[in-house]
Amino acid sequence: MTDDQALLEVRDLRAGYGVSRVLDGVSFRVAHEAVAIVGRNGMGKSTLCDTLVGLLRASGGEVVLRGERIDGLAPERVANSGIAYVPQGRRLFPSLTVDEHLAMLARRTRGKRWTPDAVYELFPRLAERKKHGGADLSGGEQQMLAVGRALLLNAHVIVMDEPSEGLAPTIVDVLVDAVHHLVDQGVAVLVVEQNLRAAVRMAHRQLVMVSGRLEAEFAGDELLARPDLQHRYLGVGGHELEGEYR
Asked: What are the residue boundaries of the ABC transporter domain, all occurrences included (predicted)?
């Protein structure tokens, strides 16, 4: 597989809850790069994440990972196929230590790129807190642990849902550096973000989701520099970026 070939390709994906359709024909591809999905609340971004990782069954379309369809597979089979998930809210075990969280997946990492030691190297703060329980960590430390846990799957694609939510700028800087490092290691990263500045820093390509469809694509800092486009696609602009889409 060459660098310009898609690791993940989504084709006309449709999904929803009962009779309510949320995703309405979503199509995009991700090669060896970071790609961000941005959009207002309620546009279907988290539903897209859940569908990609098998937590929600698609009602139509295809999800193709490295040339093989994975739509319709159970979440554990999706993970084994090569997609790791960093969910919104982190979903850690409050009573387990950092070490214990990583140890649950450590046996599968022998001889692979990502091991607990490699996670501690990427996030030195976790090494300092390895004996602390999940409930005792700060929000930033919890997010580092959620990312580190996903890395131990040694996946080809990592999906991150709102990774910068509620975090201080210094922690966002750590996550941005981590995403760039993963891409340098040949991992594709799909980031769903409300924080537009963080999304632009993490991913050179940004796809805008509106009412369950991808309506536009931007590169670099074009969207961040254009309040008119922010207003058109995100409903914000100018000083409003200091809030939800800062």
From this structure: 8-236
> What is the spatial distance between Cα 10 and Cα 232, in angstroms, rounded to a whole number?
25
Per the structure block, which two tokens stand in for 138? 């700060």
CB 55 within 8 A of CB 223: no
| Nearest-angstrom CA–CA distance, 28 and 13 | 10
* Beta-sheet strand order (sheet of 60-65): 20-30, 8-17, 60-65, 68-69
Residue found by looking up tokens 């090669």 in the block: 31
Query: Are the C-beta atoms of residues 145 and 137 closer than 8 Å to each other?
Result: yes
SS3 88: coil
Q: Report all structural domains of the chain as residue ranges with CATH numbers, in order of start.
A: 8-242 (3.40.50.300)
**Distance between start and end Cα atoms, the chain:** 37
Please list the pLDDT of the chain residue by residue as tens digits (246 residues): 444 578 999 999 999 998 788 999 999 999 999 999 999 888 999 999 999 999 999 999 999 999 999 999 999 999 999 999 999 877 888 889 999 999 988 887 877 899 999 999 999 999 999 999 988 999 999 999 999 999 999 999 999 999 998 889 999 999 999 999 999 999 999 999 988 999 999 999 999 999 999 999 999 999 999 999 999 998 875 444 444 444
What six digits make up the tokens of 90? Answer: 């982190």
Give every strand in the sheet of 205-210, ordered side by side. Answer: 83-86, 157-161, 188-193, 34-38, 205-210, 213-219
- Burial tier of 172 (Cβ tally within 10 Å: 0-12, 13-18, 19+): buried
